[in-house]
Design a protein that fits this description.
The chain is an alpha+beta fold. Helices cover 40% and strands 26% of the residues. It is built from nine helices and twelve strands. The protein is globular, with a radius of gyration of 20 Å.
């Protein structure tokens, strides 16, 4: 019996979330937290799906017609997309695990979608890569998020740091993070629906179109300056831009009291920059700080109001097959 383990990284959106949905640019980077999917051949006529992370288990026939647990619908939709791509559906067992908190804006669902697509197609002897991997994994993201921008599954597949505009090929960014700086992710512990937040922001943008147009253009200007900062390794400027980007997201209704509290704590504790990352209405903030006592103080203060606080590496490799036998 064949067995494949594939993994893909989570992500941080450093700049541009929500604005990317309407065609403006975003900067995303991969992080050292990963999702892993194990696919094993099995006998019978079923696909068995299990996620210890979500506490969900289901099985579906090879026709892919039976209902499954809501949390596992993503993976059935990926199989349907692969069938349209010409792949056969064979009996197998799937185990989905993630180091990222779920519904926290760190790209957990996209990472698992990418890892599953890569693992299953590798099991069949024809690993899906490049545009095909992005196309199929995005079908899973549509189930999870309704109108995904494509950033999450792109960074999960490619890794590194990218500048992304919807409908265009993502461009790799040479991100230079000097020694002596670190990123800290603080989770509010509040779960939310990405789809609901995206629809709310889009609705507000349409209602206030003459005002929101200026906010969207300001976001794109921020991205341009942030690209300069990343290429030069100018962390002072990068931090200032993070605070401004958070303000734009607040203006468009993506933040809430829990996120604003963490950003304000980060600022009061000496962070160079901080902002919500992901959809908002909960999930995480990311803060930039100097390593050593400053980062330690920041993490300690954030821990008083966050469900978890983690220091992460960024710009890590994308989807990869870790085991094949």
């Amino acid at each position: 019996m064949g067995r494949v383990v594939a993994s893909a990284p989570g992500k941080l959106i450093l700049f541009g979330e929500h604005f990317v949905v309407k065609g403006y640019r975003a900067i995303a980077t991969s992080i050292s937290l990963r999702a892993r999917v194990t696919v094993e051949e099995s006998e019978g006529s079923w696909v068995e799906l299990y996620s210890p992370t979500l506490g969900a288990r289901s099985r579906v026939s090879l026709s892919l017609e039976e209902p499954v647990a809501r949390e596992l619908e993503v993976y059935v939709e990926i199989l349907r997309a692969l069938r349209r791509e010409g792949y056969s559906i064979v009996p197998h067992r799937v185990t989905v695990e993630s180091e990222m908190p779920v519904a926290a804006g760190l790209g957990s669902s996209a990472a698992t979608s990418v890892a599953y697509t890569l693992a299953y197609t590798t099991l069949l002897g024809s690993p899906l890569q490049g545009d095909g991997l992005l196309r199929v994994s995005l079908e899973g993201e549509k189930v999870a998020h309704g109108r995904p921008s494509g950033v999450d599954n792109t960074i999960a597949a490619m890794g590194g740091t990218i500048v992304y505009r919807r409908g265009e090929k993502p461009v790799q960014v040479e991100a230079r993070i000097p020694e002596g700086y670190t990123f800290i992710v603080a989770d509010t512990g509040m779960k939310r629906s990405t789809r609901s937040v995206v629809e709310h922001v889009l609705g507000l943008a349409e209602t206030l179109w003459d005002v929101s147009e200026h906010i969207y253009k300001a976001s794109d200007a921020l991205v341009e300056r942030a690209l300069e900062a990343l290429r030069r390794g100018d962390m002072e400027l990068l931090g200032k831009l993070m605070y401004v980007n958070h303000g734009l997201l607040v203006a468009m209704g993506a933040s809430n009291l829990a996120l604003d509290t963490l950003v304000n704590i980060a600022k009061a504790s000496g962070a160079l920059g901080a902002k919500l990352t992901g959809a908002g209405w909960g999930g995480c903030i990311v803060a930039l700080a100097r390593k050593g006592s400053e980062a330690e103080t920041l993490a300690r203060e954030l821990s008083k109001h966050a469900s978890s606080v983690r220091l992460v590496d960024i710009h890590v490799p994308g989807a990869t097959v870790e085991e094949l036998r």
